[in-house]
Write a structure and sequence with these properties.
single chain, alpha+beta, 11 strands
């Protein structure tokens, strides 16, 4: 491996270790790959010529991936034995699209890679549990074992309740200020008891919020702010663990804000 390629691979590893997320993998004219990574500060890093071997720690069997392809419904992917590796590669890529962050990886006895990922809570569903590992130690365990917070970022999102034309209430968690602002003219100024026992009430995934709001007559009836933190922890064995969604209560047990 030449110096330039080493530099590129190191840069990808560095980006991922700092919380970068792979958002695009595309095969180029030389049968290598163009890789785009989105960083926590919303900037993007682009690597135009990465070999399959160099990319392998991050996406297994990338030659099976088609240009700009992402799995939108994992339950629809075949789980036959001969396709297991390809399915895992596709699920891994989907996890990266869904804000997953690689916290650790190592090569196993078969020469493949075991990848530990941290996922936002809403993506840890049963259908993905056997393929996506939500990294070994919890935030509390890492801190109790002597870990130190090296940096953190205070973030805010919203819990939003929407009244539908039929009268039912839909609740959406982790809605950003930017998404909420798109519908600010549809926030009901009159407070309402959205937890009334006579109202049909259920929780929905955040990625359906816009679809619900596009329905005529949908009105936002409650908005509650929610503070959380993204945290990097250095463990006693010098690993850097990334926790993208730590509650205010959890955070304050181990760190006082400046």
């Amino acid at each position: 491996m030449n110096t330039l390629m080493k530099s590129r691979v190191h840069s990808i590893q560095e980006c991922v270790s700092k919380g970068g997320k792979i958002i695009e993998v595309e095969q180029n004219a030389t049968s290598n790959y163009k890789v785009r990574i989105k960083m926590p500060d919303r900037s993007e890093k682009f690597f135009p010529n990465i070999t399959q071997r160099s990319l392998q720690p991050f996406i297994k069997k990338t030659q099976q991936l088609r240009q700009n392809k992402a799995v939108t419904n994992i339950s629809e992917v075949s789980t036959s034995e001969e396709e297991t590796s390809e399915i895992r590669a596709l699920k891994f890529l989907q996890a990266m699209y869904d804000d997953g962050v690689i916290s650790e990886y190592h090569k196993n006895q078969q020469g493949n890679y075991v990848v530990r990922m941290r996922m936002p809570p809403e993506y840890l569903c049963e259908s993905m549990a056997d393929e996506i590992i939500n990294s070994g130690d919890s935030f509390e365990q890492s801190m109790s074992d002597g870990g130190n917070i090296t940096n953190f970022k205070k973030l805010e999102s919203y819990s939003v309740c929407v009244k539908m034309p039929e009268g039912n209430i839909e609740q959406f968690e982790n809605i950003s200020q930017e998404r909420l602002n798109k519908y600010k003219d549809r926030i009901n100024s009159q407070p309402m008891d959205v937890h009334d026992s006579t109202v049909i009430y259920k929780n929905c995934k955040r990625n359906t919020f816009d679809a619900y709001m596009q329905q005529p007559g949908a009105t936002i009836v409650e908005v509650r702010p929610y503070t959380f933190y993204s945290v990097h922890v250095k463990t006693l064995d010098d690993r850097i663990e990334y926790y993208p969604h730590i509650s205010k209560e959890q955070f304050q047990l181990y760190q006082k804000e400046e």
